[in-house]
Amino acid sequence: MPEIGETLRETRMRRRIDMTEVEAATKIRAKYLRALENEEWDLLPGPTFVKTFLRTYAEYLELDPRLLVEEYRQRFERPTTQDLTPFRRERGGRQRQRPRRSIGPFIVVGLGIVIVLGALYLLGALGDENDPERNLTSTPTPTATATATPASTSSGSKKKSKKKAAPTRVSVKITASERVYVCLVDATGKAVVDGEYIEKGASTKTFRSRYFRVNLGNSSVRMTYGGKRYSAANIGQPIGYELRPGKKPKRLKESVRTGLCAS
């Protein structure tokens, strides 16, 4: 049979395949492929890799990988230690067998140990029941029980739910849907909008105070107050409101409304 490396090289050359093409197709580095063709087995990682690379390369070249791998095993692979160890045979050609050890004595010894440990455990348990000092020590005193009760009660009393604090200030902005007269007074009595006319679609600035009072010439307004929007009630005449944090607009008495700003 031709040499392994010679078979690989001649097949590749006959098919005009470059080494780089083999490397790209088989994912085997070119230096290992050349080592296979030159039968430089020492340059390869080991016998396992040699057989793997040889099988892959042969399949790529459409050769019979089993023949090449078997050829490598017979000619180059070293036998293992187990293969080299001869069988010891007795006279007459029969293989010597090791005598089998009986497990009977081990079972007897194990049962004896279990019996001894059980007897020691029973003796210890009986001794504890007959010892008056141990029985007195294990009984809980009423003082300890009474002390634990108030501790649990005091820890539970500390858990109280915290209520969310109510807002102390309010923000207000007024937008006109039609031309409207507006008077807006803050908590200090200052007229932040001093009897002005707001044109359709226009808005005031956003004012902040503890509370506001507003006098409106008609209901054509939308008040943005406390994060919500409110429309003035359409009563066919001027109307006034008091705006406080966390509450809905409260309608003002006529005497209070007319006294806010000079009309």
Calculate the terminal CA-CA distance, rounded to whole Å.
123 Å
Q: Tell me the CATH architecture of the domain at 170-258.
A: Sandwich
Radius of gyration: 52 Å
Low-confidence stretches: 81-94, 132-154
Number of extended strands = 9
- According to CATH, the fold-level topology of the domain at 170-258 is Immunoglobulin-like
Biggest beta sheet summary: 5 strands, antiparallel
Task: Round the mean pLDDT to the nearest integer and report it.
Answer: 78
Instruction: Please give the order of strands in the largest beta sheet.
Output: 3-2-5-8-9
Strand content: 15-25%
| Helix/strand order | HHHHHHHHHEEEEEEEEEH
CATH class membership of the domain at 170-258: Mainly Beta
Biased composition (Low complexity): 137-156
Biased composition (Basic and acidic residues): 80-93
Transmembrane segments: 103-124
InterPro entries: Bact_Cytoskel_RodZ (IPR050400), Lambda_DNA-bd_dom_sf (IPR010982)
Reconstruct the topology from this structure.
Elements: H1 4-14, H2 19-26, H3 30-37, H4 47-60, H5 65-75, H6 81-84, H7 104-130, H8 132-138, H9 142-157, E1 170-176, E2 180-186, E3 191-198, E4 207-209, E5 212-216, E6 221-225, E7 228-231, E8 239-243, E9 250-251, H10 254-258
Antiparallel strand pairs: 1-4, 1-6, 2-3, 2-5, 5-8, 6-7, 8-9
Helix pairs in contact: 4-5
Protein name: Helix-turn-helix protein
GO molecular function: DNA binding
InterPro entries: Bact_Cytoskel_RodZ (IPR050400), Lambda_DNA-bd_dom_sf (IPR010982)
Written overview of the protein:
By secondary structure, the protein is of the alpha+beta class. Among the domains are: about 70 residues, 434 Repressor (Amino-terminal Domain); about 90 residues, Sandwich (Immunoglobulin-like). Helices cover about 40% and strands about 15% of the residues. It is built from ten helices and nine strands. Strands 3-2-5-8-9 form a five-stranded antiparallel β-sheet. Strands 4-1-6-7 form a four-stranded antiparallel β-sheet, with no helix packed on it. Strand 6 and strand 7 form a beta hairpin. Helix 4 runs antiparallel to helix 5. The longest helix is centred in the middle third of the chain and has 27 residues. The chain is elongated. The termini are far apart.
